[in-house]
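HUMAN: Quick job: go over this next protein and say how the chain folds.
***
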Amino acid sequence: MLFGIDVSHYQEEIDWPKVKASGVSFAIIKATEGTGFIDPMFEVNFRGAVDAGIVPGTYHFFLPKFAPLQQASHYLTNLKEIVGNRPCLPPCIDLETAGAPSKAVMNANVRSFMQELERVDGRPGLFYTSPGFWNTYLPVPVFNNYRLTLTDLDWAVRHPLWQAQYTTGWPTQVFPWSGWTFWQYSSAGKISGIRTRVDLNYFNGSSADLAALAARGGSRG
C-alpha cells in the first residue's frame, strides 16, 4: 500500500517538497463544488504536487440540489484548464451531502454525473463516500421476478472506490464493491509541510499500479 493525502484550501499554503519528503506518494486535490465554486487553491496545489513528484488527483464536491450535468461540466471545464493532459488520477465525485428528493433521484443523478465524466475523460471516475452515506442515500429497491431485492447499484462497481472510514480496524465492505482502491482512514493527520490537520489515505496497490491509474491524464473534452 502507498500513503497519500487529500487537500483543499482549508490546508492553506502547502510546502509540497516537505510533503513529498514525508513519504506522500499521491495527493487528491479539491477542484470544484456545485456549479460555480472553484477551490481557490486548486491550481496552486495541483502544480505544487506535480512539481514535487507527487501523483495528483482531483475531486468535485457534489451538491444534490444542482443538476448533475451542469456540475460535471463545471468540473470538467476546470480539469481541462488546469490539469490538461498531465498524468492525473481519474476524476472523482465526493459524495457526502444529502439533498435529493428521493433515493431514486440521487441514484440517477450520481449515475448521470459519472457517465459524463467517463464520456469526456475516457476512464471510470472514482467514488469518494463513506459506507454510512452510500448505504443511506444511494440504494434503490428493485423488483426482480416479482421479488424485492436489495438495491440497484450494479452500475457503480466498475468505478474505483475511495472509501472514507475512520476505524482502528480494517474498513468494512461497501456493496457492490469487493474492496477499496483508496481508503481515507483519518481526518486528523499531521504532515510536515502542512500547518493544519489533513486527511490521510492509503492506495491499495504498488507505485506501478498508481502510475497506471494516473497514466491517461486529464480531461480530453
